[in-house]
Amino acid sequence: MTTCEPDGLEPGESVGAFLCQAGQVLRAASIESPRLEARLLLGHAMGATPEQLLRDPRQKVPPEAVARFGAALAARLAHVPMAHILGRQGFWTLDLAVSPATLIPRPDSEALVEAALEAFPDAAAPLRVLDLGTGTGCLLLAVLAERPAAFGIGVDREPEAAALAARNARENGLAGRAAFLAGDWDAALAGRFDLVLSNPPYIESAAIAGLMPEVSRHEPGLALDGGADGLAAYRVLAQALPNLLAPGGVAVLELGQGQRAAVESLALQAGLGLLGCRKDLGGVDRALILAKKPFGGPAARD
User: Fold this and answer.
1) Binding site: residue ranges?
2) Which of 3.40.50.150, 1.20.272.10, 3.30.1490.20, 3.40.50.620 is the CATH number of 88-300?
3) Beta strand pairing status for 151-156 and 193-198?
4) Domain boundaries, the chain
5) Fewest CB within a 10 Å sphere: which of 34, 61, 297, 299?
6) What are the alphabetically sorted keywords of the record (predicted)?
7) Annotated binding site for substrate
């Protein structure tokens, strides 16, 4: 059985010893899934997958990996998100680069992709797609990956986010069908779109400080802060969508927990139609599906 001491590991110690120590330290810091995170951190430092580490726990950790591992472990103990340490995050079928300029893509947001694909089931449809607040580009790129005749534009107020989304498009082979702009959401857009996606900021301003430190300290405030009641961005979206949607067009908006009724009310006041709401894997109303009146084409499907 592998044993380990909490301190004093040196180059040449085994992978098993490093994993044991890291797991103990992470567990003591109340990090969820400490054993998994230890494997991810050490694999990152050694340029190996977690599976490769487990296949040979007696292999020695090379000297050049020790400093990288120590820095990564220290960052995680400071509640830097794992995705920021690794520089990558999986979403849908994509592997995406991430940075502190954007929200980290979350599995809950895949409910928006599912809703969008259900609204437009024809894989050959030449859709025009708009993603407002694109961040990493995760929503737009996931839809483009599944709809090969579609073209999309992603807009973000943060130039660094728009640049990162463009990088993700290139790395996932989608750059030819995606363009990214830095600016205020709809200010410079004159076209009409079949599908509008958005994961807007929806956290109440006063609640941000109470979020887990990985979020409150390390993710961008502009992408989190939805104003005093969490609805500021939805008010802007509700007014913008009627001019952005083509006839028969559909909008899919991410919701925070408990926000469905309020956002539906804003949409109705703006003259939009309600097509339904898709829950995430946790059973939370997550993807609100709206249409421009009068309904037509794919937008008529619930």
Assistant:
1) 133-137, 156, 185, 199-202
2) 3.40.50.150
3) unpaired
4) 15-78, 88-300
5) 297
6) Methyltransferase, S-adenosyl-L-methionine, Transferase
7) 199-202
Structural contact between residues 137 and 97, judged by C-beta atoms closer than 8 angstroms: no
- pLDDT greater at residue 59 or residue 123: 123
Worst-scoring range by mean pLDDT, 93-102, 178-187, 206-215, 272-281?
178-187
Instruction: Please provide the average confidence, as pLDDT, over all residues in the chain.
Output: 90
The strands making up 178-182's β-sheet, listed across from edge to edge, are 178-182, 151-156, 128-132, 193-198, 245-254, 285-292, 272-279
Q: Where are the alpha helices (DSSP H) in 29-86?
A: 34-46, 50-55, 63-77, 82-86
d(CA 44, CA 237): 40
Which tokens in the block code for residue 201?
A: 């900021």
Tell me the pLDDT band of 294, cut-offs 50, 70 and 90: low
Residue 50's pLDDT is 86
pLDDT of 162 > 80? The answer is yes
- Residues of each annotated binding site for S-adenosyl-L-methionine: 133-137, 156, 185, 199
